[in-house]
User: Fold these one by one.
Assistant:
Number 1:
Amino acid sequence: MSGALVTGAAGGLGLAIARRLAARGLSVQLTDLDGAAAEKAAQEIGGSAWAAALDVRDAAACRAAAAETERRAGSLEVWVNNAGILLPGLAHEQNDTEYRAMLEVNAMGTINGTLAAVERMRRAGSGHVINIISLAGLVAPAGYAGYAASKHAAIAFTLGTLTDLRRSGLDRIHVSAVCPDGIWSPMIAGKVDDPAAAPSFSGKMLLPAEVAIRVEELLGRPRPLITIPRWRGGMTRLLDLFPSLAVRLMPLLLADARRRQQRFKRRVESGDWPPA
Ligand SMILES: NC(=O)c1ccc[n+]([C@@H]2O[C@H](COP(=O)([O-])OP(=O)(O)OC[C@H]3O[C@@H](n4cnc5c(N)ncnc54)[C@H](O)[C@@H]3O)[C@@H](O)[C@H]2O)c1
């Protein structure tokens, strides 16, 4: 059997991805900072899925987890860097601790996981690392400066690593960046009342299972970067291309995002969201 490892897999998108990988026949190691919650998630999946505590900020622990997947499953075919944290707030008001936390988990965590997986995959000659980024990796939404900085770093590392693998003739090791719009997961489900989190509600609200399908599709058709949905990627890149326009449009975009967020709150309260 082939092995896979997912970080931050105790719930939300990570669990949905682990489910799809397991259904695909992979032996999946679900890891999370919260080891007990990861254990519960692995039991829910059943079969050959198993769990372990893993803090992605710890490079040595990431390497040990990669070795463990290989030992237990026989190979490490897929590694998904999914663990992440979002601490919204005005750039000039957030503190050093908040910035460090986002950079260490979202950027360094992705770097640690990618390197741990690539080390094993180079020996095996093949494999796929999938890094869950965000549309905030392509543009900086209002009030998400620290989060966007950490996600921009993660995209740069993803694409840079892919280029270096190709330069070195390692054509059968793939590295992909996945940039989804807002996802209805514990990360934002508790933030319908928080105006600082409005940008997460500005486009299409995705369900974890929808994103997980796209992640699985990447295994059959590896690509350097995908945005979900695709049209939001185009819109985001347009804002990135014209920063002066983006700054001028920001109050309008933010007001629209806030309206959508309030609409979501009403839908949740009336039982109309999330879909059964
Ligand atoms: N929810 C969204 O709107 C959204 C949108 C785009 C991208 N993303 C990204 O998707 C990924 C999954 O997020 P989610 O929405 O499922 O959020 P989530 O909060 O439900 O899940 C994140 C998981 O990461 C774990 N985690 C946190 N710090 C960790 C660490 N140091 N080491 C290991 N695990 C750690 C948490 O315990 C949690 O289980 C994240 O990278 C997030 O940035 C989320």
Number 2:
Amino acid sequence: MFLQNIDAETRQQIDNLLALYQKSGGGLPVDIELLIASLCKVIDVDIELHERFFCLRNNRGLLMPIENGFSIEVNRLDTFAERRVTIGHEIGHILYSFDYDLYEIPQQKPERKSTTIFPNKTVERICDEIAGYILCPPDLLTDFLEHFDEILYQPDLFAEKQQTVFLFRMNFMAKKFGIPLTQLYRYIILQFGKEKLIRLIKK
Ligand SMILES: [Zn+2]
């Protein structure tokens, strides 16, 4: 079950965002600029996107309040696919966990605490899940997994030619969604359990 641990209001906002994105002509892999433009419309704030150097490579991103909205800062040392996941995660914070009162951003969800001040593992996991939901739309992900063995094996498509059929198919999906392979594994395990991945390997 997707987005099981978040409230109905946030889930609705996420679905509104994806609906507007699709209506605006957005497809796969998700067009980040169009996604952010859609988000600005859905929640009526400004969002800026910046790349910067974070000293630590595992410092993926930062969400900062700006006048009338947010600045999402991503790590320039990360790959393009990694940065996309970071942006999805920060969008999760904007929709799920930001304390709008504290930063005098349009009043919404005032009961929530900012994770900038109170980092919380549960919130981080939920924002990762929102990133997965946005970048790998659930109906498409489910469809891909149901027809996993129909993904045509074309070993020449990627640079690493010696990969197995399973790895090829997973890489193919990761490319389609524009996320790193490791994130795709994590997301499938989160949504469908480890067993699902093991069954796919054995196919
Ligand atoms: Zn976070």
Number 3:
Amino acid sequence: MKTNVYERRLPIRLAPCADELLSSWIARHAAFYATSPLAMLQHCLPDLRSLRAADLNLTEDQVVRIAHIFSIEPDTVRGMTFSDIPQSSRRMIASEPRQSCSSCRRAADGMPVILRSQFFGWRITCPLCGGTLRTTGGRDGPALFGGYHHAALMGEEMLDNEAEHGIQNWVSPSEIARLLLMRRVPTSLPAYEPSGYRVLGVIIPDLDEVMQTEVSKLPSPASPILPMCLRPALLAGVAIVQHAGPEMLRMLSGHMMGENKARFDSAIEDILDCSHQSLGSSQLHLIWGSRPLESQIKCQMGKQPPQSHG
Ligand SMILES: [Zn+2]
């Protein structure tokens, strides 16, 4: 795709803000030039139907074209999109901003600035200032899983490293998140509300209790973006499984039964096959595999007991 004389550079370019999403930057230009955001995008890329499409996937040619018209480096344009985020992490990118940082919330040139991290289902802290993120336009209520804060931060970092830098340990952290949100039929309870239980509840027992009143807030493995009040539980679960190694997945399976267990076993089989090659995982396996689950969790959480909710 070559640029031609009709694709003139914009006479004035607004500086992008740190972590700003491409569509936000284009929308600010649209306001400046008194046109619509889509018209501004299509001035560069006539074939693109939506700003969301530009945020998610841009080819190298498309990046170069936008960079040319806005007189900016292609790497800067690319870095404003989700283009480099691997498929495994993409199901944790929301379709709209879910959270924001009260310290970093701001506008530029009279227009609101939307950040990439506002869409990330694994974030609980602001990547710019480290502050706690809050649900956009909603109430977060009391923190339910404060006792897991340290592990949750570790899980956040693991998921972020996978999404932003392609770094995995013995298994993809976002795959663990998917596994942990699978339904679980508890072996211990004769009567149960099946939709209220997830695999994650084995690792974070507080979750089972919370879910009795918050079932509607549980997302599915296909769309694992939790509300901010529940997110630390999932992040902590990811960190605990990552550190424990493959044996933890087998232990989780032992807490399930019937069809439910068969589905889970089948889901972890592929993951375990892939992890056999990893030297790091076998070392972790030796360290963690001989301890009971409760002691692994306690060790992971440090000396701090889980905070009660209510
Ligand atoms: Zn911030």
Number 4:
Amino acid sequence: MIPVNPQTRTTLLLDFAWQPVATITARAAFLHLIRGHVSCLDKEHQTFDSMNHWLEYASLYEDQPALRSAKTLWPIPTVVVVTSKFYHKPKKTKMSINDLVRYYKNTCQYCLEKFPFAELTIDHIIPKSKGGTDEHSNRTLCCLKCNQKKSNKIPFFNIKNQPVKAPEVPKFIFEHDEIRKEWEIHI
Ligand SMILES: [Zn+2]
């Protein structure tokens, strides 16, 4: 076990359908487990519905995150599944430039060519000067050249002469790059 800061995002939260929702902190995972809000998965993919069972029977990873109290280490599950009503579906959010670059694999949505991160920018599909908003539905990924060429023209189509749309917001956006091995089958 590895003692971690309670604010470290150690745990993947799955919804009722076992779809990934978010990563949560060790502290949040611990509290949800104590309160019976989640069941947790161990190394062998067994599920545990209570803290007692988890502490007694779970098989742990070598690098299982743990919270330290005065007397003991509490192993924190790295995957938990929602079992109660505490869970509210998160609202759709905007994708950041990082999210868009990852989502489109560095591809400008106008010329459809790939560019390094530094040469890409967020494009407002309907330019702000023409009443476009900064909402997710009006944002896409664009290279600097196309951005310049487009300026405030509308409509401005891509190289295949098709209109450009904002991407579907993925249900789950990773806020950090570190992915635990056991998360991979869920995401
Ligand atoms: Zn381009």
